[in-house]
Amino acid sequence: MANDHIVKIRGLKHSYKEASTMKQVLHGIDVDVHPGQNVFLTGYSGSGKTTLISLVGCLRSVQDGSLKLFDEELNKASARKLLAMRKRVGYVFQHFNLLDFLSIRQNVQQSLEIQPDYNPREARKLSEEMLDAVGLGDRVNDHPSDLSGGQKQRVAIARALVHRPKLLIADEPTAALDTSTGRDIIDLVQRLSRAQNSAAIIVTHNMRILDSADEILHMIDGRIGTAITEQISLVLPNLDDRHLAEIASKAIAREYKPGDLIIKQGDPADEFYILTGGEAHVFRLDDNGNRTELATFSKRGTYFGEMGLLTEHGTRTACVEVHGSQPTRLLAIKGSDFAEMIGRSRATRAVITDEMWSRFNTDGTTPLKRPSHHPVRDE
Amino acid sequence: MFRKTWISWLQLKHQKAQTLSAALGITFITVLLFMQIGFRSSFLNTLLDLPASFNADVVMVNSSAVTVLRTPTFSQLRLNQTLAFEEVERVAPVYWSSILMRDPEGGEKYLRKVQAIGLPLTWDVMLLDAVHDQYDKLKIRRNVLIDAKSKDSFSQIINTVQAGEDYSIEVRSGRDQSSIRVTGLFEVGVSQSANSHIITSDATFIEAFNRSRNQINVGLIQLRDGADPATMAERMNTYLPSDVKVVALPDLLKQERAFYEFQTPIGIIFRFGLGGAVAVGIVILYQILFQLISKYIRDFATLKAIGFSNGQLRRIVLGSALMLAVLGFLPGLGLSFVMYDVIANATALKFEMTWEVSLIVFGAIAFICVVSALLAIRKLNDADPADLFG
User: Fold this and answer.
1) pTM exceeding 0.95
2) Chain B partners of A118 at a C-beta cutoff of 8 Å?
3) Which top-rank group of organisms is this from (chain B) (predicted)?
4) Chain B partners of A162 at a C-beta cutoff of 8 Å?
5) Would you state the pLDDT for residue A377?
6) What is the mean pLDDT of residues A152-181?
7) Using an 8 Å Cβ cutoff, are B179 and B171 in contact?
8) Lowest-pLDDT choice from A94-103, A119-128, B337-346
9) Of A327, B70, B195, B273, which residue is most buried, by most CB within 10 angstroms?
């Protein structure tokens, strides 16, 4: 479907002039963002995140490759077209970037005043409604200097969404905020953008908010890599950064095509899996070959394969196959690494054990193999 | 009230101290311009007051004259020759001379630069206030009228006449010395070339200042209805010998104005002064606007990011500049009103605050603001929305 993509990037490259040479910062990026999808973009400083979002946000011209926004090609787009496209995107900046000399209602209203169908009365009403939605309905005439950091970011979100853009780009929206406020802001962005069926690309270094992403893209040296560390941190939030990095270095990214069988019931259990994309379906076969449907996993970060690793006989207790027409992407962690992983953190072990008990009580009869032989080093 | 948020105004309102200093800078420039234009207008208008009062369609002067106020004399015969044209209704010779008048305060001193004008008393040759009504007084030999708007040094004479008494005083023209009797008042106003004026009959003028009928300064020619002055002047110039020239009155006034404005040192100084004031204004306001844009550069980048075009941002800066123009102009106008009054009283020069002058100054201030804004707008190029990320 033509309008299935909000953003469709293929082979995107970008370079900056540095002295007399050109320094390439993006190396053939491929990204898809669909309506209503929340994509989190992570990566170290200098990895190309800023360049990528400024290209998607029509703040720079595309040099090489294809970047389609709302199904319109931006490569070779004129400055006028980029300007027109910017009016259809919402922006949230790390430092809020509110205009101090305007009231917060006037700040929000700026996004509407540049729209071709601008109506002053309607714009005022929409701005006040949007400020109400972000919890600032009683402060529409205040100025940004009267607000806290979190409140300023709420105003910035209202400004970014008041014209109902199909794409919201947020650059480190929680960086200048404390943890609790940052979480609230992300929840707000997601609630409002999903209510409008807007896609959101959120650049962040904040691991604590990644669980709310539909997809995590990790940029490394101008390329999109697998966000292994980020994905594992979601599943195992109690691991410290050193252990996380160690396990991430051992995880393997795999992609299965539609129809592929990921786990076969009865096979020796040798890997633990974390879902990073697509869907996986779990079913069990009885002795007569009759199939019992157990579950379908679609939430990124869902893990499976732990039962075979933690139970006595060490075999797979069910089958897992690719579900739907899209490929399924997984992170695979070897059984020995998994054992070491849960051995290092009592909290991690508890989380996984609880999840396994929950599944076990629902569908199984297999007795547990206690992982107590692994030394516990943290807590 | 407004369709869109008035960003220009709100920016200025937010930066009160900066806006106040900018407005004060423009007020200063406004006063400077009013003074320059006021002096220039006073200088030109007072010099043109006399020729502008000629009740004529075309004027005859000596062909070597560069300005009607300092024209060499010529024979009245030439003026009478124009009566050969059937379009000519009537003619009148006008005499004038710069004379000295004994200082009423006493002693041996003389008051300088008194413009004496001699007219035939047949018709209202010069449209000067109250002159025609006092022709009867002027019919008596040695009687003169004096300009009620003369400089203060003539106030004793004027006060005496205003009190209803005549004032006799000695005058000198060249080596000739004579006595005249001031019997009435009229109004012209002083100029760069005259501290006072007196008007008398042609007969008294010839007698008191040793002139003959063949030594007139200006010939005034009235045409019959329907005759075109410019065409008639051209025909008369063809017809008459080259020792005189005939000019339509409006053309004469234009030539006079151009002469004083462009060919006299004082006119050139005024123009330089005006240009200087405008240049200083542009520099001051450019600095202020440049600082304003620099201060708001991140805001401009934000507006660019959310979809404001360069044109819209330029309009914001231009709007700020024009608002500063108004904010600075209004107090400048008020201050200039007061200063015009003070200067007019102190110098007896004609310093009048007219709509025309006010509009010219406001136009100049608006020009200064727009040029400054256009120069400062280049700074907007530094507002790169991509810099807001990262």
Assistant:
1) no
2) 4
3) Bacteria
4) none
5) 38
6) 88
7) yes
8) B337-346
9) B195
Tell me the pLDDT tens digit for each residue of A171-196. 988 887 777 778 888 888 888 888 88
pLDDT bracket for residue A237 (50, 70, 90) = low
The one-character DSSP state at A147 is: S
B328: number of Cβ within 10 Å: 26
Q: Is the distance from CB of B247 to CB of B58 less than 8 angstroms?
A: yes
Nearest to B302 among A53, A83, A99 (CB): A99
> Is A57 within 8 Å of B305 when comparing Cβ atoms?
yes
Does pLDDT of A270 surpass 60? yes
> What is the identity of the amino acid at B196?
S
Closest alpha carbon to B96 in B42, B144, B40, B154: B144
What is the predicted ipTM? 0.73
The encoded tokens of residue B106 equal 């006493």
Longest dimension (CA), chain B: 97
Q: Do A87 and B13 make contact, defined as CB atoms within 8 angstroms?
A: no
Q: Which token pair is A93?
A: 């900046």
Q: What angle do CA A249, A252, A255 make, to 5 degrees?
A: 150
Of B14, B298, B312, the CB nearest to A97: B298
CA distances, B243 to each of B66, B79, B216 (Å) = 13, 12, 13
Cα–Cα dist B150/B194, whole Å: 9
- In this complex, do B303 and A110 lie within 8 Å of one another by their Cβ atoms? yes
Tell me the three-class secondary structure of A182-238, residue by residue: HHHHHHHHHHHHHHCCCEEEEECCCHHHHHHCCEEEEEECCEEECCHHHHHHHHCCC
Average pLDDT of chain B, as a whole number:
88
**A232 or B237: which leads in pLDDT:** B237
Contacts of B17 in chain A (CB under 8 A): none
Cα–Cα separations (whole angstroms), residue A369 to A132, A268, A315, A353, A360: 53, 15, 12, 10, 13
Contact B389 A54 (CB under 8 A): yes
* Model pLDDT, residue B2: 59
* Residue-level pLDDT at A368: 41
* Residues of chain A with C-beta less than 8 angstroms from the C-beta of B13: 101
Query: Comparing C-alpha atoms, which of A311, A313, A308 is closest to residue A370?
Result: A311
Are A111 and A159 in contact by the 8 Å Cβ rule? The answer is yes
Residue ranges and CATH numbers for the domains of chain A are 7-234 (3.40.50.300), 245-362 (2.60.120.10)
Average pLDDT of span A209-224: 83
For residue A103, the one-letter residue type is S
The pLDDT of B278-299, averaged and rounded, is 87
B390 → chain A, closest CA residue? A50
> What are the pLDDT digits (tens) for A310-368?
876 788 888 999 998 888 988 898 888 888 877 777 777 777 777 777 776 665 544 44
Q: Following CA atoms A32, A33, A34, A39 in sequence, which dihedral angle do they give, to the nearest 10 degrees?
A: 130
Determine the pLDDT at residue A89.
94
Check: CB of residue A139 under 8 Å from CB of residue A146. Answer: yes
Paired strand residues for A223: A220
A120 reaches B (C-beta below 8 A): yes
Residues paired with B171 in a beta bridge? B101, B178
Test B307 with A87 for CB contact under 8 angstroms.
Answer: yes
C-alpha pair distances (Å), B383 with each of A106, B18, B313, B345 = 21, 21, 10, 53
Nearest to A108 by CA among A88, A131, A137, A86: A131
Within 10 A of B337 (CB to CB), how many other CB atoms are there? 13
